Structure formats: structure tokens, C-alpha cells
Amino acid sequence: MKVFLLLFLVLIVVALVLAWRRGTAAREQRQLDDARAEAQRWYERLGGQVMNLHADDPAARQALADASERYNAAGGQLQQARSVRQFQLARESALEGLAYVRAARTAMGLDPGPDLPPLMSSQGAGQLTREREVTVQGHQYKAGPQPGADTPYYYPGGRVQGRPVPAGWYSTPVWKTALGAGAGVLGGMLIFDALLSPGFGDMGYGDGYQDGFQDAANDFGGADAGADQAGDFGGADQGADFGSGGGDWGGGDFAGGDFGGGDFGGDF
After folding, report:
1. Alpha-carbon distance 267 to 265, whole Å?
2. What is the DSSP letter of 139?
3. Buried b vs exposed e over 31-52: b needs ≥16 C-beta within 10 Å?
């Protein structure tokens, strides 16, 4: 009798374990299917825009080229995705492409269409609301909220080397330089320092940006290394040039209000 009861209890435990495993597997499969469907939906929407839009305007044409690149990237990610996280990354690529499409439509004078879900990569980066201009190492760089002949490169916002970079139109894709290697990294960082850093005449940033700026500086070897880099790129004279540019960007243009606050989540 005892043996029978023991076997009965073992069978019950085994049945419960199997049912739990089946339930877990079914739940995970549903999550996977949902993530796949969500990524596929945005990917197909991006494809329709990329295939049907054509532009002569340089800014719109560049934004559509970037959208097409994200479309190809999302397609490759979808083909290789095997997990929820991988499908989420494909969805993110498709949404980035659609952000470029919205920018292209704006440059073409068209309705940009409905708002998109927020990009994970651009959270806390904000967006430009004023035109900005700075000279770095003898080269002029511009940025602003609207496309133009001098600002044909759109960026949907994100973090580059730890720095939050706002969404907007730029004269050159400096974020690509800053994500490169070797001297290009330092050049890109100097440009971002001049455009966005509170160290160039504008102290109206929130603590979130200060933390990100310090983390990025530490990545290049801390304060001493930063001083060495400043010396390498022209020492005090170069710093004076940057300071001059920073003065134009300081005060009310770049501080307070929407851009302030610890989470750096507002607009520039």
C-alpha cells in the first residue's frame, strides 16, 4: 500500500512538472511569436516607405539612404533572430529607419505621418530646437532642428561614447566619426564637446549629462588624459577657440527649461 501511494505521489509530481514545463514553453513561444510579429510589422512598414519614396532634395535623399540602410539591417536581423531580444533589436532597427523616413518626408515638405514608438537608443537624448554653429580645428560644423543645404544629415538621437546626442540635422555625420577608431574618435569627440559640452561656455545641463560626459572622459583615460588630448590638439589657443564657440552656444540657447533636469530627457 505504501509503495502504491509513493508511486502515485511520484506520478503526480512528474505530471505537475511536465505541465509546468509545457506551460512555460507555450508562454515563451507566444512571447517569441509576438516579438517576431511586432518586428515584422515595422519592417514591412519601413519597406513600403523606402520603396515608394523618392527625393531630389539632398537632405531628403540622404535620409532615405539611411532609412534604406536600416531596412537592410533589420532584414538581416530578422533572418537570424532566434530570441525575443534579437527580434526586439530588429524592431529597433526598423523604427530607426522609419525615423529617417519621417525626416525625409519633412525635408520634402510632406506630412511626416503618425508618431513612432520611442527608440530605446534615443531615450534621454532630447532634440535640437535652435540652430547651432561651431568651429573646431579650423572646420565649421552646424546643427539645427530643420534640414538645410548646410545640414543634410539627420540623426534620430542617441548616445555616442557615453554622450547624449540630440536628434536633429547636422552638417556632417560626426557620430560616425566618433564611433570609429584612432584619431577619428578624438576628432569626433572634440566636435561633440564643442557642440554639446557644458565645458564650452554653457553650464545649463542636468546631472544626467554631466555623468555621461564624465564617464566618456574616463573612457579616454580620465582628467589627465583629457588634458593631454587638449594639449595635443592645440593647447590653450585651441581651447580659447572652443571657448569662443561655446560662448555663442551658452546661456538661454542651450540651457534650462526643457533641456535641464537630471534625466536629460527634454529638448535642446
Report:
1. 7
2. E
3. ebeebbebbbebbebbbebbee
